[in-house]
Amino acid sequence: MMYFAPWKIASIVGGILLAALLAVPSFVDKARLGAAAEWLPWRQIHLGLDLKGGSYLLLEVDMAAVIRERLDNIADGARTRLRGAGIGYTNLAAADRAVTLRLTDPSRAPEALRLLRELANPITTGMGAQQPDLEVTATPDGLVTLALSEPLLREKATQAVQQSIEIIRRRIDETGVVDPLIARQGANRILVQLPGVQDPERIKQLIGKTARMTFHLLDETADVTARTPPPGVMFLEGDRGRGGAPERYAVRRRVEVDGANLTDARAGQNPQTGEWVVNFSFDSIGTRRFAEVTRNNVGRPFAIVLDDKVITAPVIREPITGGRGQISGNFTAASANDLAVLLRAGALPAPLTVVEERTVGPELGADAIRAGMIALAIGFVLVVAWMLLFYGLFGAFAVVALVVNMILLLAALSLMEATLTLPGIAGILLTLGMAVDANILINERIREEVKRGRTPLNAMEAGFKRAYATILDSNLTTLFAMAMLYAFGSGPVRGFAVTISVGIVCSMFSALVFVRLLMVQWYRGRRPAALPV
Amino acid sequence: MPLLRLVPDGTKIPFMRGRHVGLALSALISLASLVLAVWPGLNWGIDFKGGIVLEVRTQGPADFPAMRAAIAEAGVGGASLQQFGSPSEVLVRMEAQPDEAAQQRAVAAVRSALEQSIPGARVVRVEAVGSRVSAELFVAGMTALGMALLAILLYIWFRFEWQFAVGAVVTLVLDVTKAVGFLALTQIEFDLATVAALLTIIGYSVNDKVVVYDRMRENLRKYKTMPLRELMDLSINETLSRTIGTSATTFLTVLPLALLTTGSVEGFAWTMLFGIVVGTSSSIFIASPIVLLLGEHRLRRGVEAPAAPAGSAG
After folding, report:
1. Which residues in chain B are closer than 8 Å to A491, comparing Cβ atoms?
2. CA B57 vs CA B46, B84, B93: distances in Å
3. Residue B98, SS3?
4. Interchain pair B206, A474: CB under 8 A
5. DSSP type of residue A301
6. CB neighbours of A488 closer than 8 A, spacing ≥ 6?
7. How confident is the model at residue B306 (pLDDT cuts 50, 70, 90)?
């Protein structure tokens, strides 16, 4: 145990030098290193938002809205189909997770079930099999239930979250934020990290809009002052009603053209009036649908609806076949631009709410780094002084090992591209304190063995051997606690668990292998009669 | 230069003699800590309680009345202001709003009110945690504590005897409850960072216990006839120098953190410092007496028969 073959020495020293090289990218500007940067694996430690400044948002996808919309669609479809087939029904209602209705003639149930089952959308489940998202059943007395099935609701949540992530990314990219991180968290949440963003207000507004744009016809015969709209019609408020009472429109529920069929949207100015407008163009399906609708309804008004508000309701003057259109509606340059961004990025499948926000300004982050670094330096000096005072030469070995430990830790964090947070710096500090523990254990053990009358080499060997199991057991238990912190913690606190865990693993190498190497080489060089313990 | 020794060589302090007093005292302090945690209670941070915190920096000393007026004008009630660090740093706290949308409106309103009506004021930190998220964070934090204790229990059981595992975990629970009492007394905010401190205390403290237990296990093999009580005293004395040495270096590294940082990391550091002291003393006075209590007769079972002479290496 107290002998190192030359190749072992070479690989230990080589390994440490390699680690030092791997840690370099975290401290040096890539541009300044020039050609050397080309052959280094360029992996860096990232600064967490608490050190660099930035905004952390946790968004929640409103699954209830997704379900409600699907149920509304199903209810709508059921109405059209049953009417078309001349099957009478009453009490059509969308409940919690199902649509129910009662057939006036229960004997027509088989026919009704066949028609209603066609409303189901196939969803691909995790196993790759296709399943309908709807279970249609009927009781003998004619009560029909169209229920959304549970595993498929989960599937739907996954889809909604993934779609939302894609759309949020597009919207944020338009704002020019550098390196945003957008990731799913848990069943229905999305984590958004925006480095360098001091005031996330505008981004929150961009994210907070569903931006679902639809084109509808108006029901001109409906009485907009009535309390409830006629079937198939909804009352929506106008967006321009600032100041006075908002206008009310009787909008047909049927979506003529969907905003999903847009290919582009740009803010612009109307050359005649100078008014801000949003110009848009449709894809081929949208163009065809839009041409059809406008051709059949010349002289009648149609409504452009955005998130349940009527932006504008112009009268169709002539068929629009080119697939291009223009929205005007009291825009400013900024609001026209924002709407264009939203329309280009597409609609969210469901509304999002911000359930957690943490924003740190860059000056606070800089303060945190400074305080952390000073604390780190002072802590290091104190430990070095302590080790030298109490353990002399062997203490000096421990200090060298501590430096090696830091190099290994930084190299490992760089390789992992870990995120350094203020709690992470606290973890490094604690690692300093706990890493020398292994050396203290070894040194104390060697002292004991010397007192028992062992020869120096024997004492060193026994010291390392005996201390080995102790160090392993004690460090493993600490690692358990940190693993739990990582598993259940969130945000910057996780950085703490990472640095301290990596630090402990590195300290085992530096204390058990590197210090042993130092002691053996020192002993072989000097052949002292007594150990300096 | 002669080396300094923190603990003189060959100490024979009869720690076990004070085991009843030690255990009773520890249990009493832990009990008192739990009482303190209920009354006057912990200072719950927004991580676990939900709510809004804004850190504001002003040019020159902060004008509190003007800031209160600005917030009142924004139509957000129940805000409390507190100086934080220097006179130009203010912490604005608000209770959790009824729902997430209201929470976001409150953040936006207060933020713009302060930045517009107080010249030179900058909002340098915003934290808004909804009540649903905070409830989840709390459950996650407590789960982490529970799982860590369970993992440690199982590991020590696996590596030692069950008496050691139970001894360690009971001691850890006593340590953690005292740290909770410390949080209640000092009114350090109880948040994710302090839970991290509690977990680190657990990790640190168990590390200490394992070293002592490890020595006991070794001595149990070496001195087959030595009474358990004596053997424990011997083991504690033999490892005393290391126990105190490691505590000292760890304490020294955390101290600058406590003195130099602010906010949640400062709370973390002070809790840690307290935990290091508690964890070290419990390694000496609490962890072994519990094993003695549990294993006085059982740990020696089957080993005593040959009545071999005392250890050979001594």
Report:
1. 192
2. 20, 10, 14
3. coil
4. yes
5. B
6. B140, B141, B143, B144, B147
7. very low
What are the DSSP E strand ranges found in A332-427?
Answer: 352-360, 419-420
So what's the pLDDT on residue A372?
92
The torsion angles phi and psi of A358, rounded to 5 degrees, stand at: -140, 115
Tell me: pLDDT of A400 over 90. yes
| Overall average pLDDT of the B91-104 stretch | 89
- Of residues A311, A207, A333, A183, the one with CA closest to residue A249: A311
Task: Give the Cα separation of A266 and A260 in Å (integer).
Answer: 16
Least confident of A252-266, B210-224, B275-289: A252-266
ipTM value: 0.90
Do A429 and B3 count as a contact with CB atoms less than 8 A apart? no
Sequence letter at residue A116? L
Place of tokens 């196939």: A122
Given pLDDT bands bounded at 50, 70 and 90, which one contains residue B24?
very high
Q: B268-288: string of b/e by CB count within 10 Å (b at 16+)?
A: bbbbbbbbbebbbbbbbbbbb
Closest by Cβ to A375, choosing from B103, B104, B260: B260
The full DSSP string for A185-235 is ETTTEEEEEEET-S-THHHHHHHH----EEEEEB-TTS-TTSSSPPTTEEE
Task: Compute the distance between CA of residue A181 and CA of residue A174 in angstroms, rounded to an integer.
Answer: 14
Cis check for the bond before A314: say yes or no (omega within 30 of 0): no
Instruction: Return the closest-CA partner of residue B56 out of B95, B99, B107, B130.
Output: B107
